[in-house]
Here is the input.
Amino acid sequence: MATKQSTTLLCAAIDKNGEPYTTQIVTFISPGLPYFSLIGMPHAFLGGVRERIHTAMGAQGFTWPATRVTANIMPASRHKDGRAHELAVAASILCANGVLDKALFDHVALFGSLDDDGDWHSAGRVQWVEHLPELVSHLAGQGVRTIIIPAANKDVEPIDRVRIIRVSSLADLTAINEGTRPACDRIDRLVNEARNLMDTRQEALLDACVRELEDAVDTLNGIIEQEERDPSALESAATAEAEQTIGELQDQLDTLDDKEREEY
Here is the structure.
């Protein structure tokens, strides 16, 4: 079999100086005898973390890969709490094995420890994580737009332009779908492209940006209307940013038109 690689998933930890920092998790499923290697976790945590992840996968109905599984938590050298990373590592294995859609979890952050009370029927439940408001705030400041957290963490408040998804079990990850995320991401990309073109004074390109942004906003609003709900903070922010950029583009185009009339 060819080696399978997961997408890059994110988490965060508190270092020895009490400062939060971002971690990245990538998993490889490769040929070899069944073995679960976890790199970047303090040795004292390894046995318990591997056992809880393995047990949770089975209890939640997922088949463990019958080959070598290597999960990398980077940076490997910095202090981190293994419990907060358990959900992210499990999700990374599911992405590498094709159970979860990689596109939906690429550079998405996950937090959660997995149940360890010894009851098979409760294995896979996602438990509360310590220091989560601080960790989530750090990732939001780093530009992370989707963060999956334990439903038990009632201490995390909504953050503007960040999609917070709460889960109670490992199996809940399979119910996460794209929703409006692609439309919001498209608006972000088009806004960045438009701002890079503002000073080029290329009328055709600026006009194309206006049309693409208008189409992206229509797509986003269409999804929200179809779901018969009010827009979320993230969706409202994306729409407002698009409309502001469209206005700036139109001003730029009007300036070009005025100059052409003067020259005529």
